[in-house]
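Q: I have 594 residues here and want to know how they pack in 3D. Can you give me a structure?
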Amino acid sequence: MRFSHSGPAPTGRHDWQTLKTLVPYLLAFKGRLAIAIALLVGAKLANVSVPLLLKDVVDTLSTRDVVLAVPLGLVAAYGLARLATSLFGELRDAVFAKVVQGAIHRVALEVFTHLYQLSLRFHLNRQTGGMSRDIERGTKGIGFLLNFTVFNILPTLLEITLVAAILFSKYHWSFAAVTFATIASYIGFTLWVTEWRMVFRRSMNDLDSKANSRAIDALLNFETVKYFGNERWEIQRYDNSLSAWEHSAIKNQVSLNLLNAGQGAIIAAGVTGLMWLAASGVVDGSMSVGDLVLVNAYLIQLYAPLNFLGFVYREIKHSLADMERMFTLLNVEREVDDKPDAVTLQTQQASIRFEHVAFSYDGKREILQGIDLDIPAGKTLAVVGRSGAGKSTLSRLLFRFYDVNDGSIRINGHDIRQLTQASLRAHIGIVPQDTVLFNDSIYYNIAYGRPEASREEVIAAAQAAHIHDFVMSLPDGYDTTVGERGLKLSGGEKQRVAIARTLLKNPPILIFDEATSALDTRTEKAIQNELAAISANRTTLIIAHRLSTVVDADQIAVMDGGKIIETGTHRELLARDGAYAALWRLQQENPEQD
């Protein structure tokens, strides 16, 4: 099954499901949420009282016989209502900030944690650029959704209800009828057009992720692009993606303009109708000038929220579309998971046994067929063979990046599927053939093997890996940054950092996967002696192509076509004059191949 995040956004997930997924993160801040809602209601009540006080001020001032203290008191009350509206609003936002940022923090952390719990198969098929953009848009969407749903849609609906109730109770029913008709038409039109427009937004998200994935992929493989002179090819691919995104973005903008025009027409019709009713009431004497001012003030108060409500609803729908893709990541099931009764591995002496192991990456072509290998505690097993024989797959299965299709892998008699993955991997150290480093300092990359290690222990590991002198010759020493994926270092230097990192981890099980393949002969011999010394009392699996690096192994297994075809010591295999002996003669005759 291929996991990719460059395809269309999932449409099967309902918006309510997305909101339901978000609810637990909000309930973690129940107290703050309750206080914020109370402040919200207080702010809206104060805001609705402003036109009522303004009406009283106007009507009082319209009367000739007026006591000066009365309008001054109303003006003061008017000012206090304005102040309360602003103050409650600011307090509400301040209280709710922890809810918004806390929810974003928890969701982002859970997604990041979940990604590390997914199998290697998922990460080999993902597109980093597109997935990172999905997470970025999703977390931003959460902030927008929470802020504008709780503090814009709900307050607006509350204010509309209060205004309509006041108009209905104080004036002719036609005022409330026009208000409700306008609101209903506006909301209905907005819902209908926004749903129609969502296809353009989804398309924009999809094409944006594709363009970002292609750009990052090309930049990560900068050297390869340069090697083959394919700059124009990569630029053209990126341009094609941007052109498709541009076409979709234009459709999105034009449809937005049509929506805004329709919303403006509905609001204009409603405002005109209410003003005509109010003006008619003043003419026939059933309403005062203060009543006209009150209706006009309410219209102004309702116009902005209604117009903003359309914008907020559109953006909330967009945010939900953005959040869909991020939450879909949480629905990707773990291919390799700890069992409920998994045991924590704790040992300093580990024996390893592969029993009739069969494995296939895709279910079509078997990579390993009936593998039987035994590595006693403290001993060294070397696995050699042609490229593609399945040697490196052994280390991936031992780390439990995948589960075997048949058979079992046991450590001290325990099937590794019965062990917790964290404890299993804590007992294994690996020096891979292709070392990828973090874009940080040399010290950080070595200390990554055991972050809590002291500086003295980190330097000791570097000395054992014969990289200390090189590091000290650099202007910044251990603070030298290695560049993205360690590209500022040579292949040999990166591999020595990897060796130092593994030495610092100090695990009972070691895996050397072509660990010295990128080193010159002199350095290789020096490090081979160090590797032999550190693996003396550890269970060690060496995966190698060059036979000269494994002659001292306790046992050597020769692989071909996913099977073990020979086993024995170096001397025994040479005496047998089989596949190993033939490969040995070939490498002795052609040192370049070694």
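Q: Anything worth noting?
A: Confidence is low (pLDDT under 50) at residues 1-13. The chain has three domains: 15-331, 376-427+510-594, 435-506.
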